[in-house]
Amino acid sequence: SGTASDDGVLQSVTVRVNGGTPTVMSGTNSWSGNVNLALGDNSVLVAATDVTGNSSAPITLQVRYLLPDP
Length: 70
Hints:
Layout: E1 2-3, E2 10-17, E3 23-24, E4 30-31, E5 40-50, E6 59-65
Antiparallel strand pairs: 1-4, 2-3, 2-5, 5-6
């Protein structure tokens, strides 16, 4: 989940994990959604697009997904 803003009106927020297919999140200025992570290190890119089709530069997060100890 997160927040996004624009001078105009946002159309969508997308998240791409490890170069895969972008997933459209629910909501725009305040958004959330679910994505699948691989075990270990993941590269997560988040970008917003406004109603005129302008996309933000993606924000990149590095996420490490580990299984809990048994």
